[in-house]
Amino acid sequence: MCGIFAYLNYNVARDRRFILEILFNGLRRLEYRGYDSAGISIDSSSQSFLSSDSNGHFSNSVPSPLVFRQEGNIESLVRSVYKDVASTELNLEEPFSVHAGIAHTRWATHGEPSPENSHPQTSGAGNEFLVVHNGVITNYEVLKETLIRHEFTFESETDTEVIPKLAKYVFDKANEEGDQTVTFSQVVLEVMRHLEGAYALIFKSRHYPNELIACKRGSPLILGVKELSEDMGTGASFLDLKFISENGHPKEFFLSSDASAVVEHTKKVLVIEDGEVVHLKDGAVSILKFENGKGKRGTELSRPSAVQRALSFLEMEVEQINKGNYEHYMQKEIHEQPESLTTTMRGRLKRGGSCKAKTVLLGGLKDHIKTIRRSRRIVFIGCGTSYNAALAARPIIEELSGVPVTMEIASDLVDRQGPIYREDTAVFVSQSGETADTLLALEYALENGALCVGITNTVGSAIARNTHCGIHINAGCEIGVASTKAYTSQIVVMVMLALAIGDDAISSRARREAIIDGLFDLPNKVREVLKLDQEMKDLAKLLISEQSLLVFGRGYNFATALEGALKVKEVSLMHSEGILAGEMKHGPLALVDENLPNIVIATRDACFSKQQSVIQQLHARKGRLIVMCTKGDAASVCPGGSCRVIEVPQVEDCLQPVVNIIPLQLLAYHLTVLRGYNVDQPRNLAKSVTTQ
Fold it and tell me: How much is the pLDDT for 251?
């Protein structure tokens, strides 16, 4: 959801055109998060002038910042900005040795997509304070009523607009009370004291030219630092934020919702923590810690203590966020799965030897694995695709661990305050590591004393930081909104988790070793099934005009049915439903006729004979059948050639969902392209769901 980006150049000349293109490109890198409108703010001039207030005090002021906002995609914003620039004869070649620009892509939560509801949101005439925001302010209505009583006028329907207006109120009040030295960070800290909800914010103000302030609670935000001096420091000073702040070198700062918009500029980053206020001023980075109990002391705003942080090095390459030779990110990520699975398993599987057992090494769990084995139960918590991945792994975890496994959709767990005990292990599964519902469930589980394990694709994410231990799936950057390679890597990681938990059981050693052998060969099996690409495209052509699709699965492949149906509905906008085949006779069978397409997953496992029975029942009711089966089983699942067959290679039963989902991913992709929809940015959806 919502993408935030900001660029500040210090002591290095950049013209207005360069600054605009940096901001536009930052937004393009964040498009995948989902959005329906966009906006930017830049300075109208590099010159300041002398002004006086109502009390006769003189100060240097700068002209009001320019704000551009547009409904639609980023290219609509770009055209609108350059059209406005041309009409006002704004000089695109004007240089700025220091300049702070902010940008935003909005995913509508409060108010429909429109220029007025887009960000940056402003404090009012003159754009004294500007804010870009990712998240939701839950108490905005109360704040809005208060500000209206103080004669503020609101122009948008957003929750965000209260923030810049509250900043102006705090600033004006401090100046009325004679505090002429109120700092930008003091204003922001006082604003934060009144906000409830989840947010990542960047503030820009004409009262504090060439400064930016970023802060967060719940929503992700990172700072990138790029030094432009030849003597950029080595060794310990390379990532020393204090040294970089004090050395006076020319530098550029980048603030972003995630690393994809920063990596092409720098790999030196700071993952901003909840409650931190990052102040960029005069080429320096100051970090303050927000403490909710600290507010005004008399008439003065509080002055919090500083925090010392070091930069980290971003383990990511620009190539990961490019499409390469593919037309779409989803297509690229489907075909990357042999490599992403290899990376997920790298260094974690040990083949053993003549007298050594084959094992799994999960370094992130080594200090907690015994506690997990002693758990009263293991609770998997996730949303959407992450929930489905955990569901696919549940049978093997139960089998190898002997511990009861329960499944929870994160939002439902929080809504009903379901019981979580100290003796539980709660496993939180999230591709981004920032999913709002999953984070709330994590907070709830921590309060109840459970051991919390994180499974994410994002190093430094909120879930990775706040759980007791965890496993990174290392699937690589996933740009397409519909998760593909992260799903299969999540399943593999959870299978490896099952192997690690059950590693002390002699009775299951042969089973574990067979699974490990299957893991080693899994990337090759995935390459084999990817050869079905054209076959899935042909099937998509047959289904292009259909309105609905049913997918039946059971056992390990109930999750495959759910995930396959989810992929079809979220990108191709065709209604589809994943159904537990054992429940077919309890209602869904009424939908079956000669027109409705039904996909039945009937690969070889313990449920194979039951799925054969399902196929016979659907066939008896003239169902339009598409059967996914193991290679060589076409005749046994489809007698008389009465249905279309998708044949896939056989692997260990617990790994079969990894192979089986790929034809359905390809089907969803081709259906979407053939139907003319945006496959990477489906209607109304966002990649990182950072609101409830």
Answer: 93
